Amino acid sequence: MLDFDNSFNIFIGTSNKSLNWLDNPYIEPNVYEITNEWVPQKSKTIKLRQCNKEEDLEKFMKPNVAAYYPNSLCFDDKSQISFLSNWFDDEYKNLWVSFDACRNTTSNPKKCETPDEI
Question: Distance between CA atoms of 22 and 14, rounded to whole angstroms?
Fold first, then answer.
C-alpha cells in the first residue's frame, strides 16, 4: 500500500452534528492492535482524530458525499498502521476499532455518565 497514494482510506462517520466522538460521556472510540497471540491490546501509537473534510474525506469521495459526514473520525497518522498476513500465517498484525463504554480516570473523574445510563 505504501507504493500508492491513498490506497488505504477508512473513516467512521455520522451525520449527527451534535455527537462528539472524542469527548463523549457514553462511549470511547479506541484502536486495538491484535498480535500473533490473537490478543487485542490498546494501541499506543495509532490514534483516532476528528476528520477534516478537505484534507481527509475529499481525498477519496466527492465533496457532496463528504457533506453527509460532518462528524467523522479518521486515523491520526496512517503511517503508523501496518497490516501483516492473516490469522493462519506465522506473523500476524491487524487492527480493531472499538467503541467501548466510557471510563472515568483520575484525570477526568466525572466525564462519564453512570453505568446504568451507559
Answer: 13
Non-local CB neighbours of 42 within 8 Å, separated by 6+ positions: 30, 31, 32
pLDDT recorded at residue 43: 93
Residue 74, number of CB atoms within 10 A of its CB:
19
Indicate if the alpha-carbon torsion angle 110, 112, 113, 115 is positive or negative.
negative
Give CA–CA dist 85/44, Å, rounded. 21
- Neighbouring-strand partners of residue 49: 74
H or E stretch covering 63: helix 63-66
The number of residues making up the chain comes to: 118
Using DSSP, state whether 65 is helix, strand or coil.
helix
Nearest CA among 97, 73, 68 for reference residue 22: 73
pLDDT per residue as tens digits for the range 59-72: 888 999 988 888 89
Contact between residue 109 and residue 39 where contact means Cβ atoms under 8 Å apart: no
